[in-house]
C-alpha cells in the first residue's frame, strides 16, 4: 500500500510524539537529573565557598593583629631574655661609671607579677600572659598551655610579666648615688627602684638598694637592639681575679673598717671565707678558705711605743706569713672595726661559718659589724664578752 505524502508526515509526527512521551516518562524514573539533589549540592558548595572566603578575611585580619601586637611588644623597653649573669654585667658597668662600690649583690627567684602591682613571690613557676601570647603566635602552645584569649579576660585581670629582684649593698658618696639613680632611671631597659636605705659614715654613705627587672618574651625573629643588654658582644664579663674590682681592690674593701671578712654559701663559686686588710690594693693580706665547715679565725692586736700592730691566722694560713707583727693605724680612734659580710644558707648541708677569737693587748676596742647573716648565724666568737658585736 502506497502512503501519501500527508500520511507520511502524520506518521513521522506520531513517532516523534511517542519518543518525546517515552523520554518524559522514562528518563525521570532513571534519576538522571534529580533537582533536589542538585539544589542540595549547590547549597553545600555555597556554604563551603562562603566559609573559605570568611576564613581568608579572618586570616588577613589575624595576621594584621599579630603584626600589630608584635610591633607593640618589640617596642617595649623590657628585656626579652632575663638572666642573672646579664644583670650582673649590666650593673657592673653602672657601678664603674658612677663610682658605686657594691659590697654584695643578691637575687630573688623569678616570679610572675602583675604589671601594675607588685605581687608576692610565687611558690611555683608560672607562665606570664605575654609568654602565653607569644607561644600562641609562634605555634608553641601545648594542650595544657593555652594562651588566654582577649575576649576571655575580664576587667579585673591584668597582664603579667616575669620579675627578678636584686638587692645591692653599696658604699658611695651622695653625689655618686644620685648619678647612679639617674642612670638607672634613664636606662633603655625599664628597671624599678623599689627601696633605698642609707646611713651616713663621715663623707660616705652606706646602704642597700632594691631593684626590679622585668622580662617580656619577644616574637620569633626578634633581634635585641639595646646595646647595653647585648652583653655577649659589647660588655666585658669575667676577671682574672673574681675578688678584685676594676680598681684592683677587693670588691668589698672600703669604708671606715680596718679588716673585712666575707662568708659565702658552700655552693658559691667564690671562696667560702675571705679575710683581709681593708684597702689592700696588693691583696697580699688576703687569706682564703673553701671548706664546708666553720673555719677558725684568730686576730691578735698589741700596742708598742704608741703604735698598733696586728696579725691574724686561719686554718689554711696566716698573715704575715712569717708570724711577725704588722703595723696599722685604726680607721677610727679608740676602736678596731671589722666588717663581716655574711650570707643566707641555701641548703641544709651548707655549714660554712667562722669562729673568731681575739687576743687584744692594744687598748683598742674590737668591734664586729655583721651584715646579711643567716637566721642560724654563720658567725661565732670564742669569747663574746671581749668584743662588741653589731648585727
- How big is the Rg? 40 Å
Q: Give a short account of the largest sheet.
A: 6 strands, mixed
Q: What class would the helix/strand composition place it in?
A: alpha/beta
User: Which H/E pattern describes the elements?
Assistant: HHHEEHEHEEHEEEEEEEEEEEE
The helicity comes to 25-40%
Briefly note the CATH topology name of the largest domain.
Answer: Alpha-Beta Plaits
Number of helical regions: 6
**How many domain modules?**
3
* Low-confidence blocks of residues: 117-124, 141-148, 152-156, 230-254
Strand content: 25-35%
Provide the CATH architecture of the largest domain. Answer: 2-Layer Sandwich
Our measurement of the CA-to-CA distance between the termini, rounded to an integer number of angstroms, reads 142 Å
- Oligomeric assembly: single chain
CATH top level of the largest domain?
Answer: Alpha Beta
* Fourth-level CATH superfamily of the largest domain: Ribosomal protein S6/Translation elongation factor EF1B
General description of the model:
With 391 residues, the chain is α/β, with parallel strands linked by helices. It folds into three domains: 5-74; 77-150 and 157-238, Ribosomal protein S6/Translation elongation factor EF1B (Alpha-Beta Plaits); 239-391, no CATH class. It has six helices and 17 strands. The strands form three sheets. It has a six-stranded mixed beta sheet with strand order 8-7-6-13-15-17, with no helix packed on it. Strands 9, 10, 11, 12, 14 and 16 form a six-stranded mixed beta sheet that branches. Strand 9 and strand 10 (307-314) form a beta hairpin. It starts with a helix and ends with a strand. InterPro entries: Transl_elong_EF1B/ribsomal_bS6.
Amino acid at each position: 500500500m502506497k502512503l501519501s505524502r500527508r500520511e507520511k508526515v502524520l506518521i513521522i509526527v506520531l513517532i516523534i510524539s511517542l519518543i518525546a512521551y517515552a523520554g518524559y516518562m522514562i528518563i525521570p524514573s532513571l534519576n538522571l537529573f534529580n533537582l533536589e539533589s542538585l539544589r542540595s549540592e549547590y547549597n553545600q558548595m555555597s556554604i563551603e565557598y562562603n566559609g573559605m572566603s570568611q576564613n581568608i578575611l579572618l586570616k588577613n585580619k589575624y595576621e594584621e593583629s599579630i603584626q600589630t601586637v608584635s610591633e607593640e611588644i618589640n617596642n617595649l623597653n623590657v628585656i626579652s631574655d632575663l638572666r642573672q649573669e646579664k644583670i650582673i654585667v649590666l650593673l657592673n658597668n653602672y657601678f664603674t661609671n658612677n663610682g658605686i662600690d657594691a659590697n654584695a649583690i643578691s637575687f630573688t627567684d623569678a616570679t610572675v607579677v602583675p604589671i601594675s602591682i607588685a605581687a608576692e613571690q610565687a611558690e611555683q613557676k608560672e607562665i606570664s600572659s605575654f609568654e602565653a601570647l607569644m607561644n600562641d603566635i609562634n605555634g608553641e602552645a601545648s594542650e595544657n598551655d593555652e594562651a588566654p584569649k582577649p575576649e576571655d579576660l575580664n576587667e579585673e585581670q591584668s597582664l603579667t610579666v616575669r620579675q627578678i629582684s636584686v638587692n645591692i649593698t653599696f658604699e658611695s658618696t651622695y653625689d655618686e648615688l644620685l648619678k647612679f639613680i639617674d642612670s638607672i632611671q634613664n636606662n633603655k631597659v625599664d628597671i624599678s627602684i623599689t627601696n633605698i636605705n642609707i646611713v651616713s659614715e663621715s663623707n660616705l654613705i652606706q646602704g642597700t638598694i632594691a631593684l626590679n627587672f622585668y622580662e617580656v618574651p619577644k616574637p620569633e625573629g626578634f633581634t635585641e637592639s639595646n646595646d647595653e643588654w647585648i652583653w655577649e658582644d659589647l660588655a666585658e664579663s669575667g676577671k682574672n681575679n673574681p675578688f678584685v674590682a676594676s680598681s684592683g681592690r677587693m670588691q668589698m674593701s672600703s669604708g671606715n673598717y680596718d679588716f673585712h671578712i666575707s662568708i659565702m654559701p658552700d655552693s658559691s663559686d667564690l671562696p667560702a671565707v675571705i679575710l683581709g686588710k681593708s684597702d689592700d690594693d696588693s691583696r697580699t693580706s688576703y687569706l682564703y678558705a673553701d671548706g664546708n665547715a666553720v673555719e677558725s679565725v684568730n686576730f691578735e692586736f698589741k700596742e708598742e711605743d704608741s703604735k698598733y700592730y696586728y696579725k691574724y691566722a686561719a686554718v689554711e694560713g696566716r698573715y704575715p706569713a712569717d708570724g711577725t707583727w704588722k703595723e696599722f693605724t685604726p680607721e677610727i680612734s679608740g676602736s678596731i672595726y671589722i666588717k663581716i659580710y655574711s650570707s643566707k644558707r641555701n641548703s641544709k648541708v651548707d655549714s660554712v661559718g667562722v669562729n673568731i677569737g681575739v687576743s687584744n693587748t692594744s687598748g683598742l676596742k674590737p668591734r664586729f659589724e655583721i651584715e646579711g647573716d643567716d637566721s642560724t648565724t654563720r658567725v661565732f666568737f670564742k669569747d663574746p664578752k671581749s668584743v662588741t658585736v653589731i648585727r
